[in-house]
Amino acid sequence: MLHYPSEWLHGASLGDRIASELRLHVIDGTIKAGExxxxxxxxxxxxxxxxxxxxxxxxxxNEGLIRLERMGAVVLGLSDEDLDELYDVRxxxxxxxxxxxxxxxxxxxxxxxxxMIDKMELAVKHEDMIAFSNLDFxxxxxxxxxxxxxxxxxxxxxxxxxxxxxxxxxxxxxxxxGAAKLSMVIDKxxxxxxxxxxxxxxxxxxxVQDYFADSxxxxxxxxx
Amino acid sequence: MLHYPSEWLHGASLGDRIASELRLHVIDGTIKAGExxxxxxxxxxxxxxxxxxxxxxxxxxNEGLIRLERMGAVVLGLSDEDLDELYDVRxxxxxxxxxxxxxxxxxxxxxxxxxMIDKMELAVKHEDMIAFSNLDFxxxxxxxxxxxxxxxxxxxxxxxxxxxxxxxxxxxxxxxxGAAKLSMVIDKxxxxxxxxxxxxxxxxxxxVQDYFADSxxxxxxxxx
DNA sequence: AATAGTGTACTTGTATACAAGTTAGCAAAA
DNA sequence: TTTTGCTAACTTGTATACAAGTACACTATT
Lengths: 224, 224
Hints:
Helix content of chain A: over 70%
Order of helices and strands of chain A: HEHHEEHHHHHH
Number of helices of chain A: 9
Number of domains of chain A: 2
Oligomer: homodimer
Shape of chain A: globular
Radius of gyration of chain A: 18 Å
Distance between the termini of chain A: 18 Å
Strand order of the largest sheet of chain A: 1-3-2
Strand content of chain A: under 5%
CATH topology of the largest domain in chain A: Four Helix Bundle (Hemerythrin (Met), subunit A)
Low-confidence stretches of chain A: none
């Protein structure tokens, strides 16, 4: 059973840890949609009081993974359709961010992105799946942060944990498909860098569209 | 001093009430950006324990109005730029929703929207500012809900309280500008209905663009 | 006077206690 | 058999208690 990487939990409170573990299991289906969970039971499972559990459930509710009700919280899960929608929103956010980056000096960002791609290749060589998924995630997050739009960054924040967790799961699958698939993934990121280089909003729009259209395909073949 | 309408708080927990009141005062500037607030002090002000305050602060942090730190939460507030960005995001979300509605049968929605517009005129006649702002809000929310995209609705959920509160404040200003301004606002909503009627994505895109471009102008002239 | 050390008051994170409300099941009555 | 009413075990919302960590001012020392 996949566990949430403990190195991603440094300095995290109990509430954060419970949220991360719960999130992972809701997304990977260990906790099934329709199930009803209560603060007390979750607290018992994790051996804590209700306080951190309460925070975790609030967080998961904010992310749309569960729905808080009068009695108990019902698990919503992430269906295939939900994943599609998640990528719709990722596209919306990243597309906005990249369009914005076309209008400013983005040299330093591009350098950073290229370094990340180098590290991706290293992670492939070391067969370090966790590092790879983290790099994939950080690549896109760097773009969004560099766009310097507080509200957009906030939208991102509301889905970032889900995206990170989904990437963790899908990367596991991609790794099992061998080096060819991985170099395709890396190449897609190179295309994004090339797109940003042009600083042409039309080129960028197409690049981002291609990226996410392709990602959706990978996503579906990976999860079914 | 403007208070959060108590009729919007039916069945709300203490946490919700504190969040709403705090949100209003952060947005209207009664609580200034840069200020540091602590759970204890807020609890003392509202005469409650820290528990509901804690929830309220978490909610406000999720909305980006404050930033939680080791010691105390620092108020971020909503600058003019933040408001611009808020409307960027509103445009992004509603534009997506309306594009989606072009492809489906939206007759029932249109009927509902027209009824809302009628009620707006009634609210003007009765000089009921709170009802008007609520109708304006519900009009746009109805569009987003009807798009039936869970992730998009979630993005909306993460800003809806801020939008509602901003509308409450700006509507107060619009009302003070007299009937002519109000009928302009109502007319803008009629244009949206007309746009949706065409079911033409290009027409709709332009209508929504116009709507929010114009709203931004109103917003700025209203708050400075 | 400047600085190092220390204590105090404040902060959050977590645990626990209690109150009020909801649900489900069972028993008793029609 | 059906329905009504009650009980008992759950649920969340809120209050309170405690622990660990942080900032800041004050004091003693150089």
